[in-house]
Amino acid sequence: MTISVTKLTDAIGAEIGDVDLSNPLAADTVADIRQALLDHCVIFFRDQELSDDDLMRIGRYFGELQPLPPHRQFPGLYPEILVVEKKPEDVINFGWEWHSDTSHLPVPSLGSILYAIEVPKTGGDTMFANQYLAYDTLPDEMKEKLAGMKAVHANGRIHNTLKNNRIPEQGEEVESATYSDAWSTHPIVRTHPETGRKALYVNLTHTESIEGMSVAESQDLLHYLYEHSTQDAFTCRFKWRKGSVTFWDNRSCQHAALNDYPGEYRLMHRVQVKGTPPF
Ligand SMILES: [Fe+2]
Predict the structure, then answer these.
(1) 67 C-alpha to ligand 1 centroid (Å)
(2) How far does the centroid of ligand 1 lie from the alpha carbon of residue 206, in Å?
(3) Residue 19 placed within a domain
(4) Which of 165, 195, 256, 273 could form a disulfide with 98 if both were Cys (CB 3.0 to 4.6 A apart)?
(5) Which residues surround ligand 1, an ion (CB under 5 A)?
(6) Per-residue pLDDT in tens (0 to 9) along the chain, 279 residues
(7) Which residues have C-beta within 8 Å of that of residue 16, sequence separation ≥ 6?
């Protein structure tokens, strides 16, 4: 191994050491990092000093970068760089609920790489949950029930929250058709294209309904799955420092950004690596 790998919890997450991401990486180092990502679903690096060019170079070791829709791009920055910023006066933070990034797209991102530029004095941690474990621990009858079922993913909940500066109640019907810029249908249980393992693939932020059912009819089963998939035993909690980098696999984990630093400033830059259609 060219790197050191230290688990955060038995369930998920590992801190990677002995690598300076600001330098071009050798092929065997990239292979070891990829394997660590596949093994642990999310990996963390400390004390890095990266430019946006570095961040994009790192992303491209793992695939094509997923450009942002025009309304998410920032003037003066590359169209691939997502700015994750919370100002002291902001009430809502970015990614506040459990989710898998861009699951509302027909081809969701493989993974996201997030780099901390400014962090609050305390708080602002990110939670991650292993969705292989979420699937593996379902009762057999539930696994049988979910086989072949699909869910509709959209972006309405985020748009409604930002528009109204209020987080909808769980199961509250939101006007996704009006506000959503995209929606897609994906299997509730997806197979990871690299590991071959099955993972649960629904999330509170984007999943709207089960295919063939109304939003209201879908809620009991979806909320059972949300609760099950994010239980403490499947999680780890990452405490950011300036210069920390996190790379998570959207195909095998969910994440949630804690909103526990009111009045403080937090700034991060992110790139998304393009994935493949879930199956
Ligand atoms: Fe996210």
Answers:
(1) 15
(2) 11
(3) yes
(4) 256
(5) 95, 101
(6) 899 999 999 999 999 999 999 999 999 999 999 999 999 999 999 999 999 999 999 999 999 999 888 888 888 999 999 999 999 998 888 888 999 999 999 999 999 999 999 999 999 999 999 999 999 999 999 999 999 999 999 887 776 666 677 777 766 666 654 445 578 999 999 999 999 999 999 999 999 899 999 888 999 999 999 999 999 999 999 999 999 999 999 999 999 999 999 999 999 999 999 999 999
(7) 3, 4, 5, 33, 36, 43, 44, 45
| Count of domains observed in the chain | 1
Residue 245 lies in a domain: yes
Compute CA 183 distance to the chain's CA centroid, rounded to the nearest angstrom.
Answer: 17
What's the CATH number where 29 sits? 3.60.130.10
Q: Which of 19, 61, 14 is nearest to 40 (CA)?
A: 14
Please indicate, yes or no, if residue 279 is contained in any of the structural domains: no
Compute the distance between CA of residue 25 and CA of residue 43 in angstroms, rounded to an integer: 16
The residues, any chain, with a CB within 8 Å of residue 147's CB and separated by 6 or more, are: 189
Q: Which has the closest alpha carbon to 115: 271, 221, 4?
A: 271
Instruction: Look up the domain containing 209 and give its range.
Output: 4-274
Domain membership of residue 162 (yes or no) is yes
Distance 141 CA to ligand 1 centre (A): 31
In Å, what is the CA distance from 84 to each residue of 111, 189, 197?
Answer: 16, 29, 31
The residue to which tokens 């499947």 are assigned: 234
